[in-house]
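Lecture notes, unit on protein representations.

Consider one protein chain, 204 amino acids long.
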Amino acid sequence: MTQSPKEGLVSRCLNRRLSRPLAALLARTPLTPNHVSFVSFVIALASLWLFFAGYNIWAGIAAQISSIVDGADGDLARLKDMASPFGGFFDAVLDRYADVAILAGLTYWSLEFEARVAEPLALAAGLFAITGSLMISYSSARAEATMGRGFSGLADSLVSRDARLFVVMVGAIVGQGIATLLLLTAATNLVVVWRLAVARRGMG
Protein backbone atom coordinates (compact mmCIF):
# COMPACT_ATOMS: atom_id res chain seq x y z
CA MET A 1 0.00 0.00 0.00
CA THR A 2 1.08 3.61 -0.64
CA GLN A 3 -0.31 5.91 1.99
CA SER A 4 -0.93 9.60 1.61
CA PRO A 5 0.80 11.76 4.23
CA LYS A 6 -2.50 13.48 4.93
CA GLU A 7 -4.30 12.24 8.02
CA GLY A 8 -7.42 13.21 9.86
CA LEU A 9 -7.53 14.36 13.47
CA VAL A 10 -8.89 11.05 14.79
CA SER A 11 -6.16 9.14 12.98
CA ARG A 12 -3.39 11.36 14.35
CA CYS A 13 -4.67 11.50 17.92
CA LEU A 14 -6.17 8.03 18.38
CA ASN A 15 -5.84 5.50 15.60
CA ARG A 16 -2.08 5.81 15.08
CA ARG A 17 -1.43 5.09 18.76
CA LEU A 18 -2.86 1.63 18.12
CA SER A 19 -2.16 0.98 14.44
CA ARG A 20 1.58 1.59 14.65
CA PRO A 21 2.21 -0.95 17.45
CA LEU A 22 -0.06 -3.36 15.56
CA ALA A 23 1.99 -2.89 12.40
CA ALA A 24 5.19 -3.50 14.37
CA LEU A 25 3.78 -6.81 15.58
CA LEU A 26 2.56 -7.79 12.12
CA ALA A 27 5.99 -7.00 10.66
CA ARG A 28 7.24 -10.16 12.40
CA THR A 29 4.71 -12.28 10.51
CA PRO A 30 4.38 -13.30 6.82
CA LEU A 31 1.35 -11.02 6.43
CA THR A 32 1.53 -8.37 3.71
CA PRO A 33 -0.05 -4.88 3.68
CA ASN A 34 -2.67 -6.15 1.22
CA HIS A 35 -3.61 -8.89 3.69
CA VAL A 36 -4.13 -6.24 6.36
CA SER A 37 -6.25 -4.13 3.98
CA PHE A 38 -8.46 -7.15 3.38
CA VAL A 39 -8.75 -7.89 7.11
CA SER A 40 -9.89 -4.30 7.67
CA PHE A 41 -12.55 -4.83 4.99
CA VAL A 42 -13.71 -8.08 6.63
CA ILE A 43 -14.07 -6.27 9.97
CA ALA A 44 -16.22 -3.66 8.21
CA LEU A 45 -18.42 -6.48 6.92
CA ALA A 46 -18.64 -7.76 10.50
CA SER A 47 -19.86 -4.31 11.51
CA LEU A 48 -22.56 -4.57 8.81
CA TRP A 49 -23.65 -7.98 10.15
CA LEU A 50 -23.70 -6.74 13.74
CA PHE A 51 -25.90 -3.80 12.75
CA PHE A 52 -28.23 -6.20 10.95
CA ALA A 53 -28.38 -8.39 14.07
CA GLY A 54 -29.22 -5.40 16.27
CA TYR A 55 -25.92 -5.25 18.16
CA ASN A 56 -25.36 -1.55 17.55
CA ILE A 57 -22.70 -1.05 20.24
CA TRP A 58 -20.53 -3.89 18.96
CA ALA A 59 -21.17 -2.77 15.39
CA GLY A 60 -19.89 0.72 16.20
CA ILE A 61 -16.82 -0.70 17.91
CA ALA A 62 -16.16 -2.95 14.89
CA ALA A 63 -16.36 0.08 12.59
CA GLN A 64 -13.70 1.83 14.66
CA ILE A 65 -11.50 -1.28 14.79
CA SER A 66 -11.75 -1.48 11.00
CA SER A 67 -10.52 2.11 10.82
CA ILE A 68 -7.58 1.36 13.13
CA VAL A 69 -6.58 -1.78 11.23
CA ASP A 70 -6.86 0.16 7.97
CA GLY A 71 -4.12 2.46 9.25
CA ALA A 72 -1.80 -0.45 9.98
CA ASP A 73 -1.40 -1.50 6.36
CA GLY A 74 0.46 1.69 5.45
CA ASP A 75 2.74 1.40 8.47
CA LEU A 76 3.38 -2.26 7.63
CA ALA A 77 4.18 -1.36 4.03
CA ARG A 78 6.85 1.06 5.22
CA LEU A 79 8.28 -1.36 7.78
CA LYS A 80 8.53 -4.16 5.23
CA ASP A 81 9.38 -1.85 2.32
CA MET A 82 6.39 -3.23 0.42
CA ALA A 83 4.65 -0.01 -0.65
CA SER A 84 3.23 -0.26 -4.17
CA PRO A 85 0.81 1.63 -6.45
CA PHE A 86 -1.45 -1.43 -6.62
CA GLY A 87 -1.50 -1.66 -2.82
CA GLY A 88 -2.73 1.91 -2.56
CA PHE A 89 -5.37 1.29 -5.23
CA PHE A 90 -6.48 -2.00 -3.62
CA ASP A 91 -6.79 -0.33 -0.21
CA ALA A 92 -8.75 2.64 -1.60
CA VAL A 93 -11.24 0.38 -3.41
CA LEU A 94 -11.81 -1.79 -0.32
CA ASP A 95 -12.23 1.35 1.81
CA ARG A 96 -15.11 2.53 -0.37
CA TYR A 97 -16.84 -0.85 -0.12
CA ALA A 98 -16.24 -0.82 3.63
CA ASP A 99 -17.71 2.68 3.99
CA VAL A 100 -20.87 1.65 2.14
CA ALA A 101 -21.18 -1.53 4.22
CA ILE A 102 -20.85 0.29 7.55
CA LEU A 103 -23.21 3.13 6.65
CA ALA A 104 -25.71 0.72 5.11
CA GLY A 105 -25.61 -1.28 8.33
CA LEU A 106 -26.20 1.82 10.43
CA THR A 107 -29.07 2.78 8.14
CA TYR A 108 -30.67 -0.66 8.47
CA TRP A 109 -30.30 -0.60 12.25
CA SER A 110 -31.89 2.86 12.37
CA LEU A 111 -34.81 1.65 10.27
CA GLU A 112 -35.32 -1.65 12.08
CA PHE A 113 -34.48 -1.00 15.70
CA GLU A 114 -34.33 2.71 16.49
CA ALA A 115 -37.44 4.51 15.28
CA ARG A 116 -39.95 2.81 13.01
CA VAL A 117 -41.99 6.03 12.82
CA ALA A 118 -39.03 7.78 11.22
CA GLU A 119 -38.28 5.20 8.53
CA PRO A 120 -38.39 7.63 5.56
CA LEU A 121 -36.04 10.01 7.37
CA ALA A 122 -33.62 7.22 8.29
CA LEU A 123 -33.61 5.85 4.74
CA ALA A 124 -33.02 9.27 3.18
CA ALA A 125 -30.32 10.13 5.71
CA GLY A 126 -28.60 6.79 5.08
CA LEU A 127 -28.59 7.21 1.33
CA PHE A 128 -27.27 10.77 1.49
CA ALA A 129 -24.67 9.84 4.12
CA ILE A 130 -23.39 7.07 1.84
CA THR A 131 -23.39 9.44 -1.13
CA GLY A 132 -21.58 12.15 0.80
CA SER A 133 -19.00 9.70 2.09
CA LEU A 134 -18.23 8.48 -1.42
CA MET A 135 -18.14 12.03 -2.80
CA ILE A 136 -15.63 13.14 -0.19
CA SER A 137 -13.21 10.53 -1.50
CA TYR A 138 -14.13 11.09 -5.14
CA SER A 139 -13.78 14.88 -4.99
CA SER A 140 -10.27 14.53 -3.53
CA ALA A 141 -9.17 12.06 -6.17
CA ARG A 142 -10.79 14.02 -8.99
CA ALA A 143 -9.21 17.29 -7.90
CA GLU A 144 -5.76 15.71 -7.97
CA ALA A 145 -6.43 14.18 -11.39
CA THR A 146 -8.02 17.28 -12.95
CA MET A 147 -6.21 20.18 -11.28
CA GLY A 148 -2.93 18.48 -10.52
CA ARG A 149 -3.23 19.07 -6.79
CA GLY A 150 -5.50 18.09 -3.94
CA PHE A 151 -7.21 20.19 -1.31
CA SER A 152 -5.38 21.53 1.73
CA GLY A 153 -6.23 22.65 5.25
CA LEU A 154 -9.76 22.15 6.52
CA ALA A 155 -11.09 21.56 3.02
CA ASP A 156 -8.98 18.42 3.00
CA SER A 157 -9.18 17.22 6.61
CA LEU A 158 -12.80 17.88 7.61
CA VAL A 159 -14.93 14.70 7.74
CA SER A 160 -11.98 12.53 6.74
CA ARG A 161 -12.59 8.78 6.78
CA ASP A 162 -11.14 8.31 10.24
CA ALA A 163 -13.44 11.02 11.60
CA ARG A 164 -16.50 9.57 9.87
CA LEU A 165 -15.96 6.09 11.27
CA PHE A 166 -15.30 7.52 14.73
CA VAL A 167 -18.64 9.36 14.53
CA VAL A 168 -20.31 6.09 13.49
CA MET A 169 -18.85 4.36 16.52
CA VAL A 170 -20.01 7.06 18.94
CA GLY A 171 -23.47 7.30 17.38
CA ALA A 172 -23.93 3.53 17.43
CA ILE A 173 -22.81 3.20 21.04
CA VAL A 174 -25.19 5.91 22.27
CA GLY A 175 -28.01 4.50 20.14
CA GLN A 176 -28.54 7.53 17.91
CA GLY A 177 -28.41 6.10 14.41
CA ILE A 178 -30.64 8.60 12.64
CA ALA A 179 -28.95 11.60 14.27
CA THR A 180 -25.56 10.17 13.28
CA LEU A 181 -26.65 9.67 9.68
CA LEU A 182 -28.06 13.20 9.53
CA LEU A 183 -24.80 14.60 10.92
CA LEU A 184 -22.76 12.67 8.36
CA THR A 185 -25.14 13.70 5.59
CA ALA A 186 -24.81 17.38 6.43
CA ALA A 187 -21.07 17.35 7.08
CA THR A 188 -19.96 15.35 4.06
CA ASN A 189 -22.14 17.03 1.48
CA LEU A 190 -21.45 20.54 2.78
CA VAL A 191 -17.72 19.88 2.58
CA VAL A 192 -18.15 18.67 -1.02
CA VAL A 193 -19.99 21.92 -1.85
CA TRP A 194 -17.20 23.87 -0.16
CA ARG A 195 -14.63 21.97 -2.22
CA LEU A 196 -16.50 22.90 -5.38
CA ALA A 197 -16.18 26.56 -4.41
CA VAL A 198 -12.48 26.12 -3.60
CA ALA A 199 -11.91 24.34 -6.91
CA ARG A 200 -13.80 27.05 -8.79
CA ARG A 201 -11.50 29.73 -7.39
CA GLY A 202 -8.42 27.62 -8.06
CA MET A 203 -9.33 26.77 -11.64
CA GLY A 204 -10.40 30.29 -12.55
